[in-house]
Amino acid sequence: MDVIGRKPVLELLKSERPVQRVAVAIGTRGEIIGDILREAKRRGIRIDRIPQDRVKRVFPTGNHQGVLAETSPFKIRSLAELESGSLPVRHGLLVALDGVTDPYHLGAIARSAAAAGCDGLIQPQRRSAPLGDTAVKASAGMLLRLSVIGVKNLADALLALKKQGWWIYGTAMDGDGGLWDHEWPERSVIVFGSEGKGISHRVAQSCDAKLSIPMQPGVESLSVSAAAAVILFDRLRKAQVDNIL
Q1: Consecutive 10-residue averages of pLDDT for the chain (245 residues)
Q2: Which of 199, 207, 163, 203 is nearest to 182 (CA)?
Q3: What is the pTM of this model?
């Protein structure tokens, strides 16, 4: 898998994930480029300097910012690892995505999730955004910090987590209660649905409650990534006040 962009590549190098090589276009400068080169040298990773006449052949289309790193594909974790304790839970927070197929939204949600202390990102094997360079770039590399848990059936996975003591919260315009008054338990799974359709019926049935974000009249909705940021940081703020984290 190729990771492009300065912040994503630097985050990749800091993550200690395996990196085969770093490619930097000749003439690319800046403080972050210096950090990338130092980190690559510290880890003994091959650095290729790419002449300008070869940049279009080496770098993919998109805003690569003159830097690329080659790494192995994401290691998809299992629900069994979470249940057994081999996948650590430090902050009692999981994010589940139901039908989020846009990699830009995936990346933006991952960025907020990492900043809010999320322990893992749950994705169904089907109808999910690809875990590739676009999502990593959109997350500013934060997707690389998250454990990604793949499940065959999200509704069944949520029911299994409920038996393990997790509380499951869906998000919807017509939620059961407003976000500002919600009290978060120590272990929460927050489910975000697709743009337009929201959470599927069976997944909604697996939720303990559905939360809504209070908004001014005339505002129909937020994008799924914007809503995720609001809800995740509400949880973080209240957890810090209550000394959960």
Answers
A1: 86 86 85 90 90 74 79 88 87 95 94 94 92 88 91 95 94 77 92 88 92 81 90 90 60
A2: 207
A3: 0.84
